[in-house]
């Protein structure tokens, strides 16, 4: 799999229209119980691109199915799984999948770019978490001081 076959992570932010997603869903459902892998893949990718978390989860689930069913699609699925988990805010899962891909393809530009996005998001969220917890500790200190002052009066 070369870099040219993978979209950059930013492409995942461009959702399909409801009508486009419905076309993919209907094609997938028409082919059940044995949907073709490409049909399943297209539907999974459309779901992952959705802004709806429930649809993203279904897309990730379908992508996992493909990953487990077709050895020749494993590396491709790792990338799309990483994007799906990234979009859902599950950065540790996203990181696991992108690292597995980079172990196979260390020079994959799209995978490296996605790893940077994941790392930036984790760092930014970590800083926000520290600020929030620091604020909570400060607030508790103020409340405790007020209670102590009130009791000592």
TrEMBL record:
Major location category of this protein: mitochondrion
CDD domains, per the entry: Fis1
* Compartment(s) of residence: Mitochondrion outer membrane
What are the protein's UniProt keywords?
Answer: Membrane, Mitochondrion, Mitochondrion outer membrane, TPR repeat, Transmembrane, Transmembrane helix
Q: State the membrane topology.
A: Single-pass membrane protein
| Transmembrane portions of the chain | 127-148
One of the record's GO cellular component terms: peroxisomal membrane
Q: Cite the repeat ranges for TPR.
A: 75-108
Gene Ontology terms describing biological process: autophagy of mitochondrion; mitochondrial fission; peroxisome fission
Q: Which SUPFAM superfamilies does UniProt cross-reference here?
A: TPR-like
Superkingdom of source: Eukaryota
Q: What is known of its domains?
A: The C-terminus is required for mitochondrial localization, while the N-terminus is necessary for mitochondrial fission.
Q: Which family does it belong to?
A: Belongs to the FIS1 family.
Database matches in PANTHER family: MITOCHONDRIAL FISSION 1 PROTEIN, TETRATRICOPEPTIDE REPEAT PROTEIN 11 TPR REPEAT PROTEIN 11
* General function of this protein: Has a role in mitochondrial fission.
Protein name, per record: Mitochondrial fission 1 protein
Protein source organism: Coemansia guatemalensis
Question: In the UniProt record, what gene is named as encoding this protein?
Answer: FIS1
């Amino acid at each position: 799999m070369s870099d040219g076959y993978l979209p950059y992570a930013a492409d995942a932010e461009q959702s399909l229209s409801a009508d486009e997603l419905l076309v993919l869903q209907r094609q997938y459902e028409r082919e059940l119980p044995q949907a073709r892998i490409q049909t399943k893949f297209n539907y999974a990718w459309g779901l992952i691109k959705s802004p709806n978390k429930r649809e993203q989860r279904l897309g990730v689930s379908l992508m996992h199915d493909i990953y487990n069913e077709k050895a020749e699609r494993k590396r491709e699925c790792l990338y799309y799984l990483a994007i799906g988990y990234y979009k859902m805010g599950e950065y540790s899962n996203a990181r696991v999948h992108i690292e597995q891909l980079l172990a196979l393809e260390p020079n994959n530009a799209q995978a490296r770019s996605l790893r940077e996005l994941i790392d930036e998001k984790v760092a930014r969220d970590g800083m926000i978490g520290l600020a929030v917890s620091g604020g909570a500790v400060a607030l508790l200190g103020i409340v405790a001081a007020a209670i102590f002052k009130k009791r000592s009066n």
